[in-house]
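Appendix C. Worked example: Lysine ketoglutarate reductase trans-splicing-like protein
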Amino acid sequence: MGKSSFKMRQLPMAVVCIVMLFVLFRTINYEYYQEEIEKKWSFFGETMSQENADNFAKLKGLPQGIVHATSNFELRPLWLPSGLRSKVSDYSNRNLLAMPVGITQKNNVNDMVQKFLTGNFTIILFHYDGKVDEWSGFDWSRTVIHIAAQNQTKWWFAKRFLHPDIVSTYDYIFLWDEDLGVEHFSPSRYIEIVKEEGLEISQPALDPNSVEIHHRITVRARMKKVHRRVYELRGKTKCSEESQGPPCTGFVEGMAPVFSRSAWFCTWHLIQNDLVHGWGMDMKLGYCAQGDRTKNVGVVDSEYVVHKGIQTLGGDLTKDASTKTPPTKHGLDVRTEIRRQSTWELEVFKERWNRATSEDTRWVDPYKSDQRRFRRRRNSKRLS
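Step 2, the predicted output written as structure tokens:
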């Protein structure tokens, strides 16, 4: 009886020791993870500080008060009445819409521009067909920025003309395709929602009747204002509560992304200068979400658009944009060639990402540790 009682007293002590060891292990593990994250950001901060120091050194010939380090896309008059010259302009345009356009879609582009002008947006049109004068029939044509380059993509334009230093005065950057129906979309209301929800990267939901829908998470949820994840148990990609990354959560598509100023700073650096189609970037945008991508990336359901799926870039721009006939050039199916190029660029982007993550010994993937913690939590539930 005495030995049995002694063993019973020993048992709780063993349990307490095990619990204490487990807590100690988790604490050390967490501190190590935090230390790695801090090292990463410390290194990044040191690099940025060095770059800033180098830039300031280049400016040493100027008095500090004359340095004007930012710019924007606000149009300025060639002259002003003498009584207005000394007055400081207070621009109300705090957001930017940048969009690649072709003249064959001028009617839909007109509808989109009219919507955004009512929300006091600065608007840039990237003319991938090189045609600018043909837009002069619209009253708003003189109030927007026109940039033309033949057969260039949205990401080519964005990398070259939307540098973070130039767009730093704008709170949100809308980088949209031209084939979106905006009958059910209010830009001002959309901005209110993303601010309320704390979304650093977002997109409007797609009407279920859209011509092209590539990812289930982008489809509008009728009873919600915003959603951040999707549940899908059919098909190759299964999305459940256990899913911790794209395309189940922390994901927006490339057709209508909206970025906060900070998220765009990161995204611009993610865009590869020579990979002009941008394939693969959507899966990595969550790394630019300024925190937890499952919280800071979302799809706005109450303000939604219709994706019309009209492709004109690289085609015969003299034809109706709605034609389904594949454009050809010198016997080639241009659409097929563009898709082949995009697929090749996707593989190159993946290779670059994998090489960068393996070579940067200071970089820590925050989402891998999340996945490990989630798996441990799931396994512990199964055991219990």
